[in-house]
Amino acid sequence: MSVYSLPLRTAVLTATLSFSALFAAPALAFSDDEARRAILELRGQIKQLTEQNQQARIQLADQMEAIRHEMATMRGQMETLNWQQELEKRSSQAQSGGTASTQASDPQEQAVYDAAMGLFRSGKYKEAASSLASFIQTYPESALVPEARFYRGSSMYASKDFKGSIQGLQGMVKSSPDDPRAPDALLVIAASQIELNDLAGAKATLQRIVKDYPQASAAETAKSRLKLLQ
């Protein structure tokens, strides 16, 4: 073996290793770039999933709110149907004389009132409301005024003048809180409030019936309707 063979082999080996290292270095750098790119892509995916999750929660909340609104509307419709049935019952009672607890001393006064009630009994609620309003204006001191105001408010409710019904019946209850029809007037007010989507007002009105008129039959009706509005 030549004395130059060992150093030569060492030089060749060193050169080979250096050459290999030259190509290995970029490979290592490329792997780091790929890792960074993967991390950035993962972060982007996580951000996208988070945003999608937030959007899904918002959509679910909107759907739940829509369902609650629909249920409240259905409860309101049930309340309306219940009151309409009671209104028809009252109309039948008025027709048979079952609610005529007061009579006017003046025959002409009684005749005017009976004519207005005839419109109510025949389902001509707009005309009845107008005639009853005229009666109240003509005979403001009549003993029939509280009753006339009740049926006027009921007629306005039946003809879908809910704001007018509330205003008229609130005046009737305020001026005649001890009248037997006062709790029934509050029931009509609550029904009108439900029609106007004033559920908080309807609850307060029904609670007032239970509190102020606990012995009236309207109190039991108010309790059942409060359960529907929970």
Automatic annotation (TrEMBL):
One of its GO terms (biological process) is FtsZ-dependent cytokinesis. Residues 1-29 form the signal peptide. Residues 86-108 are annotated as: Disordered. It holds the Pfam family YfiO. Residues 32-66 form a coiled coil. It comes from the Bacteria. One of its GO terms (cellular component) is outer membrane-bounded periplasmic space. The keyword Signal applies. Residues 92-108 have a biased composition (Polar residues). InterPro entries: BamD-like, CpoB, CpoB_C, TPR-like_helical_dom_sf. Residues 105-229 form the Outer membrane lipoprotein BamD-like domain. The keyword Cell division applies. It is found in: Periplasm. Keywords: Cell cycle, Cell division, Coiled coil, Periplasm, Signal. Belongs to the CpoB family. Mediates coordination of peptidoglycan synthesis and outer membrane constriction during cell division. HAMAP family: CpoB. This is Cell division coordinator CpoB. The gene is ygbF.
